[in-house]
Amino acid sequence: MRLRKTFLWSMIVSLSLSAALGVIAILFERLWRVDFEVLVTSLLVGAFSMTCLVCAFVLEKRRARGLMWIGIGCSLAALSDWLVIVWTNPWRWGNGNWDELLIKAGTAFTTICLWSAHMGLMNLLQITGWKPKIVRTATLVLTAALGVTIIGVVWLEEFDEWSGRLIAVLSILGACGTVVTPILALIEFLARKGSSETIPAKVQLRLTCPRCLAQQKLRTGLAKCAKCGLRITIDIEEPRCTCGYLLYQLRGGTCPECGREVPQADRWAGAESTGLSRT
Questions:
Q1: What tens digit of pLDDT does each residue of 39-81 get?
Q2: Three-class secondary structure of residue 209 per DSSP
Q3: Which helix (H) or strand (E) element contains residue 159?
Q4: Is residue 104 within 8 Å of residue 155, measured between CB atoms?
Q5: CA nearest 147: which of 170, 173, 124, 169?
Q6: Closest CA to 197 of 231, 220, 217, 175
Q7: What is the C-alpha separation between 120 and 125, in angstroms, rounded?
């Protein structure tokens, strides 16, 4: 939680600084001079804080922990690399091709951290069907191939027509899979949420009238006491998690669907007499 808060606040501060500098540059162009380095630095910090925040969030969910640490490390490395380029202007260092090496390294680190964050978010999707799982796996493979292709083209400096077409095809397919996979997960979620309750809508409850103390059976919904005519409304709602998962006979204190902790009042206490009779 502390790690996520750190990246969140760094992102908020950097983006706020970028916005403030942008407003100053627009409104007070003659009075204030906003250095290019300061503006780009704040934008870079905000962008890579976002990737770190995503990886930290997935890390707290105990998903792909090794890859998420790699994503955080590559985010920090990419940020450092691009900041060196922005502030030191390596083109003035003379011979040695330091500018090319920094750009290549920054591109590689950026690609890896983006793919790590993307994979972490995809793994958070609650998917049980084999078809959505195939789509998600194919999407992750395509985006990984896209990242490897981009890094290879940059480092080998062999960008041609076919490599450009390959990058374009992988980008389109990866984007389609990234959009389709959450939609399939949402369809599964709505199907589970709309599942029928374990108790039918119309049941009879054995209860005692609070006014005349007459014991009787009444149906759910609008009813009235058979002896004194007291109007009674009976509603039954089975406990569900906030994600919609039905908690009937759930063993343990954690929702298997979303991982949230189930309130003590909604946990299954065992088979007990409920006083319900199905009709």
A1: 777 788 888 888 888 888 888 877 788 888 999 999 999 989 9
A2: coil
A3: none
A4: yes
A5: 170
A6: 220
A7: 9
Which tokens go with 96? 């040695």
Q: Edge-to-edge strands of the sheet including 215-219?
A: 215-219, 203-208, 276-278
Cβ atoms < 10 Å from Cβ of 253 = 13
Query: Which run of H or of E encompasses 17?
Result: helix 2-27
The structure tokens listed for 243 are 């994600």
Give me 14's structure tokens. 């950097």
Per-residue tokens: 51: 């990737």
pLDDT tens profile 235-279: 777 777 766 677 776 767 777 766 777 777 777 765 343 444 444
**What residue type is assigned to position 82 of the chain?**
W
Query: Can you give the C-alpha Rg of the chain in angstroms?
Result: 29
Residue 86 · residue 146 · CB < 8 Å: no
d(CA 106, CA 79) in angstroms, rounded, equals: 8
Nearest Cα to 38, choosing from 63, 55, 54, 17? 17
* Other residues' Cβ atoms within 10 Å of the Cβ of residue 208: 11
Which residues face 223 on adjacent strands?
232
In whole angstroms, what is the distance from residue 69 CA to residue 48 CA?
Answer: 14
3-state secondary structure 110-127: HHHHHHHHHHHHHHHCCC
Query: Alpha-carbon distance 32 to 183, whole Å?
Result: 47
How is the chain split into domains, by residue range? 2-193
Q: Report pTM.
A: 0.61
Both tokens assigned to 44: 């870079």
Distance CA 49, CA 37 (A): 18
Q: Which pLDDT band holds residue 125 (cuts at 50, 70, 90)?
A: confident
Average pLDDT, the chain: 79
User: DSSP state, 198?
Assistant: S
